[in-house]
Amino acid sequence: MPSVTLRGIVKRYSDVTAADGFELTVNDREYLCLLGPTGAGKTTALRVIAGLTVPDEGTVLFDGKDVTSLEPEKRNAVLLSQTYSLFPTMTVADNVLFGPDIRKVSEGDKEQMLVSLLDLVRLTSRAESYPRELSGGMQQRCALARAIATSPDVLLLDEPLRALDARLRIDLRRELKSLARTLGLTVVHVTHDQDEALMMADRIAVMRAGRIVQVGTPEEVFNEPASPFVANFVGQSNFFTGTVVCSGPDGAMVEDHLGRRVKARPTDVPEGQKAVLAIKVGHTHILKREAASLHGRIERMLFEGRVVHVDVDVEGVGRFSSKVPLSYHGRYRVGDEVGIGWNRNKAKIFPYPEGGLQNELRVD
Amino acid sequence: MPLVELKGVSKRFGKVVASSNIDLRIEDGEYVTILGPSGCGKTTLIRMIAGILEPSEGQVLIGGRDMDGVPIEERDIGYVFQNIALFPHLNVLENVSYGPIAKDAGQEEQRTVPAQYLGLVNLLDRMKMFPSALSGGEQQKVALARALASGARILLLDEPLSALDARVRMDLRYELRRITKDLGLTVLHVTHDQEEAMTVSDRIVLMRRGRIVESNTPEMMYRAPKELFTANFIGETNLLDGVVVASGDERTLVELRDGSVMGAQPGRFEPGDAVVISVRPECVRVADDGLSAVVRSMSFMGTYIRITAEAESEDILGFDVRVPRGRDFNIGDHVHLGWSMESALVYPRPPGGIAEAVKLE
Questions:
Q1: Chain A to chain B, count of Cβ pairs less than 8 Å apart?
Q2: What is the pLDDT of residue B1?
Q3: CB spacing of B300 vs A136 below 8 angstroms
């Protein structure tokens, strides 16, 4: 199986730059998720790898070989689109065996291939069904079997779970990942869903406005975000704007216009510079009022199942959110005056974004 | 008196039964989500309330009045569809003004009402733009403002967020609840997303195969689901096969397939009853003794790590550990798993098997 490398890929459509210099390497047998909001250029990246979109600039390498001008069918990369595009007049079996490469295969080999593929995607009992008789999840698996039947080296998945029910999606994440691993495929999977990316990816490439803004393991992207946007898009963050003060090897602080100081891990942002501190909602704790330097009033509490989402209105800052375990439910009420705090090592300081914080955090 | 009431409502399309003998009462000002997998009949249900579909049997009442033969425009209903349906040739303000104008509201109202609702969805600055220039989230907010501007007291939302990105969806669901609660509207919101249902609603009505499985507050649906299907559909859970060995007022003791005996909440069981234990991943802990299992996979989930383990009882269990602790575990490790008795629920083992009872499609 090959590695895939994108170098300086640029693609412009009349007034939109869909790819603004992609640099990315997907390792052999790696499961990589391209994560970003709509319009980030995720699908463009996938189509460039597949050879369905020709870039204006840059090169595509498979295992170090330049394939930029190679036709899609010679790349051995198969793209599974969001809509599956199964043939409605063909049975599951015929759909799976449709691939151009398979048509040259002997009858006996075809039969064997069909049996093993249907078993893999658990559709053996539905071989003679038509797509319209299948549920969304089954259609998805059928399309996957058809894609795998062409023995690709690289599997490109464009929002493969998007059309499915939320609950089913959670179950299929695991299945899809283990299937790819079993077959030893190199996979590039496009999604806008951060949970899906965290759960499935070996590495995540976070994209925005035609650029790849960070590439790393789920832990790196979550714990060491490269920008306030990443901090907020992967795992939702609270932000505190002010000036860097007391910066040292043990940590730094940010002081706002009201003189309140909050702590963070050490930073390269120099003292005196305008900055924004980001702390993950999941790392933000509700404390007793006296125990914290930041105070506010609980404005709403939303039950989310395993946790309760608490929004606190902090004077002069706005909303800070926290997730408290279900077992804490009842300890706090809407209207309570509380403190807010966090472990200093979980908070990161960024230079204040040029276009303003709100613009930096925009997701659509 | 409930504002909306369904009495014995059924709907058949040829041989397919989309709704089967539905009884439902929705109070004035209540936010109710109709939740269920694709094809469970949830959209059929709200279409009958809207008057887009006629029930094959039973009655739909709004404000105590039988709606048989009453068209949608006379039902006091605003409707927001899954696929954003704005007029593409009208700008945002004109789209939102459509209701008041169609209704022949006074000049003053035609001018002030649309602006009021655009303010509510924070889109006053987009007033002169056309739908094609807006993001998906903004378009759906305009659709909401348009439905609200019609002045209806009942709002029907058919998967209003499912066409949007996960992140936009999260932000918008809070807005939906805030706005409708501020206006005191009665809302019926159809969704297949259990997280969405939990965060927005006063009450969830869970449907499956044309029937209501269970209806309760989000918290009760999560903490004390009456049905196995609910336990699995709303939040994730581990389901373990076993046989009751002792049943009392304090607890139920269940023997799993490997002979280990685990505790769970009390219930009306007799020793020898075939049962299923349901315990949520966040309630399973690594203990000194308990169910022995082998770690099979680990996923970093941000603030916690989800570990999947295969128990000697042949059950697969997911459990969550905090990130720093998660580093102590490796694939292939032997662990012992346990849980508090209060966190484990017991259900009679379904005659058709567990898989069939919780099947999503």
A1: 111
A2: 66
A3: no
* pLDDT tens for each residue of B81-113: 877 778 999 999 999 988 777 777 778 877 888
B299 to A199: CB separation less than 8 angstroms, yes or no? yes
Which contiguous run of DSSP H or E holds residue B341?
A: none
Which tens digit of pLDDT belongs to each residue from A96-144?
Answer: 998 766 777 888 888 888 998 888 788 888 999 998 888 777 888 899 8
CB interface of B with A, residues 333-352, below 8 Å: none
Name the β-bridge partners of A279.
A238
**Cβ <8 Å between B222 and A325:** no
Contact A165 B219 (CB under 8 A): no
* CB pair distance less than 8 Å for A199 and B303: no
In the block, which residue shows the tokens 């309140």?
A: A260
Under 8 Å between Cβ of B296 and B331: yes
A304 contacts B361? CB cut-off 8 A: no
Is any Cβ of chain A less than 8 angstroms from the Cβ of B31?
A: no
The 10 Å Cβ neighbour count of residue A201 is: 25
Query: CB–CB of A198 and B236 under 8 A?
Result: no
How far apart (Å, rounded) are the C-alpha atoms in residues B234 and B197? 9
B233 Cβ under 8 Å from any chain A Cβ: yes
Cα distance from B221 to chain A (closest Cα, Å)? 9
CB-based contacts of B246: which residues, under 8 Å, 6+ apart? Answer: B252, B253, B271
Mean pLDDT of B188-216: 95
CB contacts, 8 Å: A323 with chain B: 303
Q: What is the ipTM of this complex?
A: 0.85
**What is the Cα–Cα distance from A348 to A226, expressed in whole angstroms?**
10
Tokens of A77: 């990369």
Taking the CA of residue B53 and the nearest CA in chain A, the distance in Å comes to 23
Instruction: Please name the residue that has the structure tokens 């909306």.
Output: B4
